[in-house]
């Protein structure tokens, strides 16, 4: 399954509680809660390049499924991890944050779990 495309966040659940749990300052939580981020994904086999634009912040990720890579947390910390792919799902754990990203048609559902707190993001393909 090819994840390539541009996706815009349509809705999310439990943003504030999750971001507080992972250590994001209250002022950044307040600024970020209404931003409709855009994720641009380029997939070439097992190689991924992801650009996430949220307001003025732009984060770039490059990884190869099954190989160690460096990823950034919501607080800006960098950590090494391995992204795994199972059909239309990508799984990774970074600094205790478990992430499951599923492509379902033109929708990407990202479920993040940290310390028992679940944050869900729903993004729709816009190109």
From TrEMBL:
PROSITE patterns: FABP. Residues 5-22 form the Cytosolic fatty-acid binding proteins domain. GO terms for biological process: fatty acid transport. The keyword rRNA processing does not apply. One of its GO terms (molecular function) is fatty acid binding. It comes from the Eukaryota. It holds the Pfam family Lipocalin_7. It is found in: Cytoplasm. Keywords: Cytoplasm, Lipid-binding, Transport. GO terms for cellular component: cytoplasm. Binds free fatty acids and their coenzyme A derivatives, bilirubin, and some other small molecules in the cytoplasm. Involved in intracellular lipid transport. Belongs to the calycin superfamily. Fatty-acid binding protein (FABP) family. PANTHER family: FATTY ACID BINDING PROTEIN (PTHR11955). Forms a beta-barrel structure that accommodates hydrophobic ligands in its interior. This is Fatty acid-binding protein, liver. It comes from Cyprinus carpio carpio.
